[in-house]
Amino acid sequence: EGTGATAASGSAAGKMTMVVGVDESEHSYYALQWTLLHFFSPGQQQQYRLVVVTAKPTAASAVGLAGPVIRCRGRAAVR
User: Fold this and answer.
1) How many Cβ atoms sit within 10 Å of the Cβ of residue 31?
2) In degrees, to the nearest 5, what angle opens at C-alpha 19 toward C-alphas 39 and 60?
3) What φ, ψ does residue 32 adopt, rounded to 5°?
4) For position 62, what pLDDT does the model report?
5) Which residues does 16 contact at the CB level (< 8 Å), separation at least 6?
6) Residue 64 has what DSSP assignment?
7) Alpha helices in the chain (DSSP H)
8) So what's the pLDDT on residue 24?
9) How do residues 1-45 score in pLDDT, each as one tens digit?
10) Which domain holds residue 32?
11) Number of domains in the chain
């Protein structure tokens, strides 16, 4: 009477979960590559489950409520 969801969760029972956060930076891409190479290589017994969390900056984080910030001689000036 098991369902597919039960079978899927049962296959990962006893494994620790590893989480890698990925955004648009080269550093996060490298971190994911490193994790895959060191913990999820083909032929290696899988001891972990991998969860990849993606993040994308919002438009609000790039442009403030007062508009874009322009740097003038080291000081921020709102345009």
Assistant:
1) 14
2) 140
3) -65, -45
4) 59
5) 47, 48, 49
6) B
7) 4-11, 26-39, 59-62
8) 87
9) 333 333 344 455 688 999 999 998 999 999 999 999 999 988 888
10) 4-78
11) 1
